[in-house]
Amino acid sequence: MHIPSSIILEVSALCNVSCLGCALHGPYGFVERSFGNMKREIWESVIREIGSWDKKVCVSAHGGGEPLMNPDLRDILTLARSFPNIEVGFLTNGMLMDESWAEFIINVNLDWIAFSIDGVTPETHDKIRWKSDLAKVEKNLETLLTLKKKKQSVVPRVKLNMVAYDAIMDQKEAFVERWINKVDEVMVSHYRNPPESKRWPNVPEDRKPCSLLWSQAVIAWDGRLGLCCEDFNIDHSPGSVGEDAGLLELWNGPEFTKVRSLHQQGQFAEHSMCRVCDTWAEAVESKIFFHEKGYRMVQTPSQTVYSR
């Protein structure tokens, strides 16, 4: 039986911001499924099952929405941190990450947190991320960094992600320079426009089976299991965790086993989603560079990660 090493737990599909490239809440969003917060009976049973595995697992407590929209998030993170085999963190738009939240995530020993910030100029940031406020997000981030330093805490590891939209590509270097000495990682991610395209640049011609099918499980806010992180609309679900079966039982069931078999046989075109997706290349194509200013750069088809 396969056991995933990465779990995406969509604790909320609701959001307080509308970002240009968001498949759920953006102006060109195409996702048709309903949105809501994950109920306690779902997240608690999933986390307890993961905690029973004899394997280190990274739980990403985010999905298509803003995790801080779920009023249970403190309980979710506290329960996850109670299991020694679980590493947990989440991606946030930063608007709700006030001082009380900063205090909590440091005290609960959250492993990592990532902020989505697009560039360094409010005029473009706030237009790309409608209903966001760059000044407020940066203030919340600085509050967390200051409190972390005051407490002399090594956690959470703080990461930033900027999406490389055409309108802000000229801000990339300024963005990296602004934060590289303050946070643990700065990520610049390529922009694409699903569902028309799930393609990334610099993808090898020799296609390989996608490692996500053996490493990643995705649980939507309503408990349905998705095929992977590219299954935005949860179109390829074998059922709901807890309601139909346990997480591992569903993830190792006949539906996903069939997809894994197609990949092993090189029949990628036989699956409607895999046929047009390049995410498989993330695990097989990466390059390491060193910037002239001394920081490390890891480049994959989807992003470049900068770190000291």
Form type: globular
Number of strands: 13
Computed CA radius of gyration, to the nearest angstrom: 19 Å
In whole angstroms, how far apart are the ends?
A: 39 Å
Described by strand count, sense and barrel closure, the largest sheet is: 11 strands, mixed
The helical percent reads 25-40%
Separate helix tally? 9
Which range does the strand content fall in? Answer: 15-25%
In round numbers, the mean pLDDT is 95
Describe this structure as you would to a colleague:
With 308 residues, the chain is α/β, with parallel strands linked by helices. Helix content is 27%, strand content 19%. Helix 3 runs parallel beside helix 5. The model has no long low-confidence stretch (mean pLDDT 95).
Summarize the structure.
With 308 residues, this protein is α/β, with parallel strands linked by helices. It has 9 helices and 13 strands.
Topology:
Layout: E1 6-9, E2 18-19, H1 40-51, E3 57-60, H2 73-81, E4 86-92, H3 99-107, E5 112-116, H4 122-128, E6 129-130, H5 134-150, E7 157-164, H6 172-179, E8 185-190, H7 212-215, E9 216-219, E10 225-226, H8 247-251, H9 254-264, E11 287-290, E12 296-299, E13 303-307
Parallel strand pairs: 1-3, 1-9, 3-4, 4-5, 5-7, 7-8
Antiparallel strand pairs: 2-6, 8-13, 9-10, 11-12, 12-13
